[in-house]
Amino acid sequence: MSKESSASMQVPVIAEGMTLGVVGAGVMGQTLIRGLLASGLIDRQRVWAGDKNGGTCERAAQELEIPVEAEFQRRVPTADLILVCVKPNDAPVVLSTIRNAGLRRETLLISILAGVSTDRLEALLGTDNPIVRAMPNTPCVVGEGMTVICPGRYAAKAHLERATHIFEAVGQCTPIDEIHFNAITALSGSGPAYQFLIMEALADAGVRVGLPRQLALTLVAQTALGAAKMVLASSRHPAALRDDVTTPAGCTIAGLLMLEDGRIRSVLARAVEESAKVAAHLGAAPAKISETASGHRAGH
Ligand SMILES: NC(=O)c1ccc[n+]([C@@H]2O[C@H](COP(=O)([O-])OP(=O)(O)OC[C@H]3O[C@@H](n4cnc5c(N)ncnc54)[C@H](OP(=O)(O)O)[C@@H]3O)[C@@H](O)[C@H]2O)c1
């Protein structure tokens, strides 16, 4: 959905006099709050967060200048929308806490939990509240996030539009069939980490050929940004864009051949494949988790 179409939408993100709650004020919870506040979509006075960790509450409240409390239950009945941002393993506890705190039937829940299907979220919540499942990423904090969303059984078009509105305030947002969520978690959810690793490695390479580190990092990051914008703005295949800068017998083809010798394509493909396998196990019921090889507690 384009920014223009969502901007013209009549559905308010939060109903008059109601609040937006964020449960789980860790990396992603804070990222989304920061991005949403910076976008101006929601007033600071109408946002609250909850986290079970007292230290996190204190730090986040100070930095975000919103209420962040361990005892957030009393705020649940005021919420028109709740973003659930805890680790997948914490879903059972947090969803029953929200339900038992006087959750209104109309309140929309948006879950960003990797690997936890809408069926499982609905079963854990045990009500017929509308639920939207989302997979955002950390560049939401600078307004360049990539988020996909899909509706649960009780979510109507208007709920999906509200979710779109939220995530378009912090980047791009696309509705997608839930069947693709584990693959997307591995590609764009975890994607910023891959990009950071690649940029770090390229900056090291710059240092290897004699550049000061900070200059190397700036060159690498701005080059990544420029290349990404070219891919997004162009209808051409990345291979065609690459050919444009590959002079016969030049230095670019020399570098590219070394990357191919290092099997960069298959390494990246295997990394995403492995990540998608882990994503598929993250939201499984406890009995299933113990059957997995890794039994990860990690959320991402
Ligand atoms: N990180 C990413 O790039 C990314 C991207 C897309 C989606 N996600 C998804 O986002 C979710 C959160 O990831 P994250 O990286 O933000 O994790 P995180 O930094 O660990 O944040 C989760 C927070 O929730 C708190 N929490 C746990 N149980 C709670 C409860 N019952 N009530 C209230 N708060 C509770 C945790 O406290 P404690 O630390 O004390 O447990 C922690 O502060 C995960 O499900 C992940 O799959 C992450």
Q: What is the domain tally?
A: 2
Bound molecules: NADP nicotinamide-adenine-dinucleotide phosphate
Judged by helices, strands and strand pairing, the structural class is: alpha/beta
**CATH topology-level name of the largest domain:** Rossmann fold
Q: What is the total tally of β strands?
A: 8
Q: Going across the major beta sheet, what is the strand order? A: 3-2-1-4-5-6-7-8
3D shape: elongated
User: In the CATH hierarchy, what is the architecture of the largest domain at level 2?
Assistant: 3-Layer(aba) Sandwich
* CATH class (first level) name of the largest domain: Alpha Beta
Number of helices: 13
SSE topology string: HEHEHEEHEHEEHEHHHHHHH
Give the biggest sheet. 8 strands, mixed
